[in-house]
Amino acid sequence: MNKQKNLNEIKPGEEIILFLVVDKIELKTTKGGNPYLNLELRDKTGSISAKLWERAEETYSQIMPNSIVKIAGKMEEFNGNPQIKIEKIRPAVESDGISFEFFLAKSNRKLEEMINELNSFIESVKNPFLNKLLVTVFSGKTLEKFQTAPAGKGWHHAYIHGLLEHTIEIAKICELMCTFHKELNRDLLISGALLHDLGKIEELTYQTFFDYTDKGKLLGHIVIAALEVQQAIDRINDFPEELKEQILHLILSHQGKLEFASPVEPRTLEAITLYQADELSAKTNAYKLAIAAEKNKDVSWTKYLPLAETSLFIPKNNQS
C-alpha cells in the first residue's frame, strides 16, 4: 500500500482516496425520506464523521463496524467541523496489503531508548527489596505487554508504547523532585512511579483498536496493579510490612482523589509527589495532542475538551 495522508493533514476541499477504520455506521433517513449512511471513520491521528448519500441501503449491508474500508470522496465542512462526503466505499481486501496495525498510533520516541531508560531506573533502585520487586515484575510477558501498551484509550499517551513513555516521564519528574526535596525516599518514589500504572496492561486492549477489556471495566487499572504487586511482594522473602504498605499506597492513591477513582487519597510525601507528577505528564501530553489535532484548521482555539473543561489556545507557530 502506498503511503496515504493522515486525516489531520487533509484540508477542506481536498479530494481523497483513503483506507480508514469504521468505528460506527448507521442507516438513516433524510427529512425527504431518502436513506443515507452516517459513519464515524478513523486513522491513527483521529476520527471524523462521513456521509454517503447514494446506494445507502445496498452499502449498509456490505460494511461492518470495526472493519477497514477504502473510500474515495471529498473533505468538506459541516457546522465548522470537517466531514467526508463519500463517493465510493468498499471493504478492504487482502490484496490491499492493509492491516489494523497501520491504524494504531505509535510513540514518536525510539522503543530501544525507552527500554534502556526503564532498565536504568530499575538498576538505580538500591533498596534490595524494592529492586527485587521491580526485577520480578518487569520480566517475561509482563514486560513485553508493558513495553507495547498504550497509557489510555484516547486522552493521554493513547498510542502503542505510550504506557512506557508515560511511565518514564513520571519517573524523570520524580527524580527531579528528589533533587529539590531530600526528605523524599527516592527508591520508594521511583519504584512507585514505575509500578503505579502496571494494571493498564490488563485494563486496555490494543490489538485492533484501543478499548477497555472486561477485566479493566470490572476492576480498573489501580486495583489490578495493586493485586499484581501484592502477589509479587508475597513471593519475596522477608519483604518489610511497612514498605509493602507504602508501595501499595503509592499505587492506590496515584489518581489523587476519591472522585478520580483512587481508593485512598495521597497521605505520604512520596504519594503526593507521584500524584502531581502523573498529572503533569498526562495533561501536558493530552493538551499537546489536542492542539496538534487542530493544526490544519486555521483556528486559534481547539474545540471544547470535556476532560480539560476548557478550550486551548493554539499559538501561531503551531498552526503551520
Written overview of the protein:
This protein is α+β, with helices and mostly antiparallel strands and 320 residues long. The protein has two domains: 7-102, Nucleic acid-binding proteins (OB fold (Dihydrolipoamide Acetyltransferase, E2P), Beta Barrel); 104-289, Hypothetical protein af1432 (Orthogonal Bundle). Helices cover 40% and strands 18% of the residues. It has eleven helices and seven strands. The strands form two sheets. The protein has a five-stranded mixed barrel with strand order 1-2-3-5-4. A hairpin with a 5-residue loop joins β6 and β7 (211-212).
The count of domains is 2
Q: How can the largest sheet be summarized? A: 5 strands, mixed, barrel
**Strand/helix succession:** EEEHEEHHHHHHEEHHHH
Biggest sheet strand order reads 1-2-3-5-4
Briefly, what is this?
The chain has 320 residues and is of the alpha+beta class. The chain contains eleven helices and seven strands.
Keywords for this entry:
2 domains, 18% strand, 320 residues, OB fold (Dihydrolipoamide Acetyltransferase, E2P), elongated, single chain, two-stranded antiparallel ribbon, Hypothetical protein af1432, alpha+beta, 5-stranded mixed beta barrel
